[in-house]
């Protein structure tokens, strides 16, 4: 297991992060999984044994049950607080009231206390705004996060599912107002969906933000169970909850290429999907969700898969996204021959 800094910070996190959306099985989250306390605790123990020191959850996962299970598991296992990096999120609805959602100062300050209680900890390592809030001024949200950092309740802050311009705007406000800066963005990124390479990847590279990848197997589509002539049995993740949206024809072309590489290397298709992400220099950590120990072990095995330059090129070619304006025009500028410059000596005074 390799470790990388969490964005432009000195905190090290494992290249794989254990996602806990599968914990709890309540409401719509039952479509992701129904892992209860004992099995979840076993998964967490296995992840820690494998070198994973990073766990990601959210207050809305199974209506708070995911956070509760994570907190109780770490307590039962006797894990030192310093040995695990805990990330959670705020924004989604946690009640029926008008102020039970969003990125307002009120909701953020209320929600962090509830998350700390469920997790049974005194601070959150990474607190993330789970989505955008079109009502709350961004300065209000950033000031609330800064308050939590100054109080010691939160160590670092991040966002999830934001556009590049929204992240850039937040960074500008933070610098102008001398507030704690966002250090990570958590985004969807797979071989079947490379959209964030258009704007978000250039931004995080320029600003030295950490990229945390969610749904690296495209909701199970890249697990090896799917293909152009292969569909899983009824009840699997994609058959009950077809998310995130993916162009199937394009994805099947990607899967065909992945299967060839996987066969050549004697590994699983899922490991190829994860390994490709782990080979991307702009990726900090890949969030893997598991329902079984064997599934987690297979995911961890991806950290040992070395892809050759040729294999990466093959996967890149079949999954390449169409350039959008102004990217294609900027590319013209990059490849255009540079005119020779003639320097005219200054005339002596």
Describe this structure in words.
This protein has 349 residues and is of the alpha/beta class. It has one domain: TIM Barrel (Alpha-Beta Barrel), CATH 3.20.20.100. It is 40% helix and 14% strand. The chain is built from twelve helices and ten strands. The strands form two sheets. The chain has an eight-stranded parallel β-barrel, surrounded by five helices. The termini are far apart. The model has no long low-confidence stretch (mean pLDDT 94).
- Apparent shape: globular
Query: What is the tally of helical segments?
Result: 12
Radius of gyration: 22 Å
| Total beta strand runs | 10
- Strand proportion: 5-15%
What would you call the quaternary organization?
Answer: single chain
How many domains make up the coordinates? 1
Top keywords for this entry?
349 residues, single chain, two-stranded antiparallel ribbon, alpha/beta, 12 helices
Record the SSE blueprint.
Layout: E1 3-5, E2 12-14, E3 16-19, H1 37-49, E4 54-56, H2 65-77, E5 85-90, H3 105-119, E6 124-129, H4 138-151, E7 154-160, H5 164-177, E8 182-188, H6 200-207, E9 210-214, H7 237-240, H8 248-265, H9 269-278, E10 285-289, H10 293-301, H11 309-319, H12 327-335
Parallel strand pairs: 3-4, 3-10, 4-5, 5-6, 6-7, 7-8, 8-9, 9-10
Antiparallel strand pairs: 1-2
Helix pairs in contact: 1-2, 1-10, 2-3, 3-4, 8-9, 8-11
């Amino acid at each position: 297991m390799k470790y990388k800094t969490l964005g432009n910070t000195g905190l090290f996190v494992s290249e794989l992060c254990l996602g806990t959306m599968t914990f709890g099985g309540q409401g719509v989250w039952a479509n992701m999984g129904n892992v209860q306390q004992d099995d979840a605790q076993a998964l967490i123990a296995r992840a820690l044994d494998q070198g994973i020191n990073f766990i990601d959850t959210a207050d809305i996962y199974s209506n708070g049950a995911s956070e509760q299970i994570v907190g109780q598991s770490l307590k039962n296992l006797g894990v030192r607080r310093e040995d695990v990096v805990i990330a959670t999120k705020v924004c989604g609805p946690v009640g029926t009231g008008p102020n039970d959602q969003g990125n307002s100062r009120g909701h953020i300050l209320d929600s962090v206390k509830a998350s700390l209680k469920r997790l049974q900890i005194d601070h959150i390592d990474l607190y993330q705004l789970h989505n955008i809030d079109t009502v709350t001024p961004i300065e209000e949200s950033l000031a609330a996060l800064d308050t939590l950092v100054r109080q010691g309740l939160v160590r670092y802050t991040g966002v999830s599912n934001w556009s590049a311009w929204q992240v850039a705007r937040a960074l500008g406000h933070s610098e102008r107002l001398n507030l704690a800066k966002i250090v990570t963005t958590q985004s969807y990124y797979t071989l079947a969906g490379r959209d964030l390479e258009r704007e978000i990847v250039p931004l995080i590279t320029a600003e030295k933000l950490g990229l945390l990848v969610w749904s690296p197997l495209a909701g199970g589509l890249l697990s090896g169970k799917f293909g152009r002539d292969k569909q899983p049995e009824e009840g699997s993740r994609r058959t009950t909850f077809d998310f995130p949206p993916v162009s199937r024809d394009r994805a099947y072309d990607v899967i065909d290429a992945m299967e060839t590489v996987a066969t050549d290397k004697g590994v699983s298709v899922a490991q190829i999907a994860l390994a490709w992400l782990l080979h991307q220099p702009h990726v900090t950590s890949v969030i893997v969700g598991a329902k079984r120990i064997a599934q987690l072990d297979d995911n961890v095995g991806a950290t040992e898969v070395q892809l050759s330059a040729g294999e990466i090129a093959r996967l890149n070619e079949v999954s390449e996204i169409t350039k959008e304006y102004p990217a294609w025009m900027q590319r013209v500028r990059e490849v255009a021959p540079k005119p020779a410059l003639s320097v005219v000596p200054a005339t002596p005074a």
